[in-house]
Write a structure and sequence with these properties.
heterodimer, A: mainly alpha, two-stranded antiparallel sheet, two-stranded antiparallel ribbon, B: 6-stranded mixed β-sheet, 4-stranded antiparallel β-sheet, about 35% helix, about 35% strand, globular
């Protein structure tokens, strides 16, 4: 008999309770640190320890609700959640998610869904990871340079000029930026489409979007991203439970006990790190996941079959 | 006359006596299981079950534990664009036992010919013939991967471990075997068969049943998830929200508010 075993009723399996707690803490730490849900990491880890893929995906959405609530609460107390921006991104995300689900239906009908999803995953992870890493290293290196007087003023980029020309600009006090409401709505929708295709909460896409396209400061990005993920994952949990009956509440409970603690630790550690240090760490994590996925895709698998109902 | 009546009476007494009954139970054809009913509780992590049986003198033993057949559908990995391995296409096996455990005192090939083993449905080759019989050529080619997947979960095994044979004083041999129902074993009834092998021939000597069901807590949770999905989902989200807020509140005690 397995020591410290806990039986997961919907997964139909038992696991060591400390392994599950440890996974929860690790992913909660990432949530608090980077503002990501952690689903893109936790789901494959749960599958690796023997949880059926559909149960893994549905149950980790539930624990992400807890971790993101804990993280949002901590960030809100520190004044680093831009609720206005978060709600606009969420509104766009709901529309985008609906479009994304329809797109997946069309892809499935044509038989290309798996290929598109996998390639999207690898391309997105690779692009985001590489860009964030390059940008953070460049920023850290240039921190020591002195700014000499008399340097010519840099001309705003095409992107900046385009964004500034959009109508309906409003002030986002927490982020310290002024921006058209069309930007968060449109970007939220694009992230929603990608999240639906990849089956993730979207944090690891949303964080770079907020950083580089919305030009929000990193510490506000983390809290705002968690706020938005909370709603996305709450919706996914209810839908998965209602439509597919794949939420294992025992699994989710143990993961969330670990992740709410981890999220608090992550938030406190994150406050002590500089924005560029956070970005580098996140980019390394994203690139590591991308490399693992690539290795799995290119290497000959040990077993040529997997039970249907996979993620 | 009186002597034959008293001899008959003595024989009758012996037949009915407990000592003789105990000896009768140690004859080939009897199987004793440590437990024939298991309930899955919150801390269930699989269960080892001990078995004791008797086989004739000079025989080898095979213990087989099988579950009911079920259809299983798998996704097949294929190389897309000659570069990446992906789940493409499906394979259906119409009847795969939910559990298939074989513990033998010697290598199966040394016990009997393949045809004999197939008739008795012992071993992976016998299983293969039955499983792929109406599942197509692809299913046949990938049966080895089905076995690997099931072995990974502990639901299939075929080995010479956890079984020992001890000769008895009367010539028969006593078989001791420990088999494991892994945590992933579905609820249901499982058949435990003991075979004796000698001179290339095998015979089913004893059979028993083990029933696995859900305890009240597990039963309640699974029925909630299956029959009241919306309520269950809202409850799961509610619990997550409360846990998150509670932890955030506890960790925030003693610290200043937003700055």
């Amino acid at each position: 008999m397995m020591h410290f075993a806990i039986y997961l009723p919907v997964a139909g399996n038992s696991e060591n309770i400390f392994i599950l707690l440890g996974l929860g803490i690790a992913v909660g730490l990432l949530s608090g640190l980077f503002g990501v849900g952690g689903g893109f990491l936790l789901t494959p880890l749960l599958i690796m320890i023997g949880i059926p893929p559909t149960v893994a995906a549905a149950s980790d959405s539930n624990q992400i609700v807890a971790a993101s609530t804990s993280g949002t609460f901590a960030h809100a107390r520190s004044g680093t959640v831009d609720f206005k921006m978060g709600l606009l991104l969420l509104a766009g995300g709901i529309v985008g998610g609906t479009v994304g689900v329809r797109l997946i239906q069309l892809l499935r009908a044509s038989g290309d869904a798996n290929f598109v999803i996998t390639v999207t995953y690898v391309v997105m992870l690779g692009s985001i990871g590489v860009y964030m890493f390059y940008d953070s290293v460049r920023a850290l290196r240039s921190k020591g340079e002195k700014i000499s007087s008399g340097k010519p003023v840099k001309r705003p980029s095409i992107y900046a000029r385009l964004v500034n020309s959009l109508p309906w600009e409003i002030e986002f006090q927490r982020s310290g930026i002024r921006l058209s409401i069309l930007m968060p709505l449109l970007l939220g929708a694009i992230v929603g489409v990608l999240s639906a295709i990849m089956g993730v909460g979207g944090g690891f896409i949303m964080v770079p979007v907020m950083l580089y396209l919305l030009r929000m400061p990193m510490h506000v990005v983390v809290g705002t991203s968690l706020f938005q993920i909370l709603f996305t994952c709450a919706n996914v949990t209810v839908m998965q439970s209602w439509m597919n009956h794949t939420v294992d509440i025992v699994l989710a409970l143990i993961l969330l006990i670990g992740s709410v603690l981890g999220a608090q630790m992550g938030t406190h550690i994150g406050k002590r790190l500089k924005a560029d240090q956070l970005k580098i760490l996140m980019s390394v994590l994203v690139l590591a996941v991308m490399v693992k996925m690539l290795v799995d895709l290119l290497g000959t698998p040990e077993i040529m079959l997997s039970l249907k109902g996979g993620h | 006359m009186r002597k034959s009546v008293s001899t008959l009476f003595l024989l009758l007494l012996l037949l009915l006596s407990p000592a003789f009954k105990a000896k009768a139970q140690n004859r080939p054809g009897k199987l004793a299981l440590q437990s024939d009913h298991l309930s899955i509780g919150l801390f269930y992590g699989g269960q080892d079950i001990q078995l004791k049986a008797v086989i004739p003198a000079g025989s080898d033993a095979v213990v087989r534990v099988t579950g009911p057949d079920e259809p299983l559908e798998f996704k097949k990995k294929e190389k897309k664009m000659d570069l990446i391995w992906m789940n493409e296409g499906e394979v259906l096996y119409k009847k795969v036992p939910s559990l298939f455990l074989i513990h033998s005192s010697r290598n199966l090939g040394q016990l009997a010919a393949a045809a004999t083993l197939e008739n008795l449905r012992i071993g992976y080759e016998a299983l293969r013939a039955r499983v792929i019989s109406d599942s197509g050529a692809t299913a046949g080619a990938l049966f080895g991967d089905v076995v690997k997947l099931k072995e990974k979960d502990g639901l299939f095994c075929c080995n010479q471990e956890e079984i020992s044979i001890v000769p008895q004083s009367g010539g028969d041999r006593e078989v001791f075997c420990s088999f494991r129902l892994p945590a992933k074993t579905p609820v249901g009834e499982y058949t435990v068969d003991v075979f004796g092998f000698s001179g290339g021939k095998g015979l089913l000597l004893a059979s028993g049943k083990v029933t696995l069901d859900r305890g009240p807590t597990i039963s309640f949770i699974t029925s909630m998830a299956a029959e009241h999905g919306l309520l269950y989902g809202c409850l799961a989200v509610g619990v997550a929200l409360v846990a998150g807020l509670f932890t955030g509140f506890i960790f925030g005690l003693g610290k200043g508010g937003a700055h």
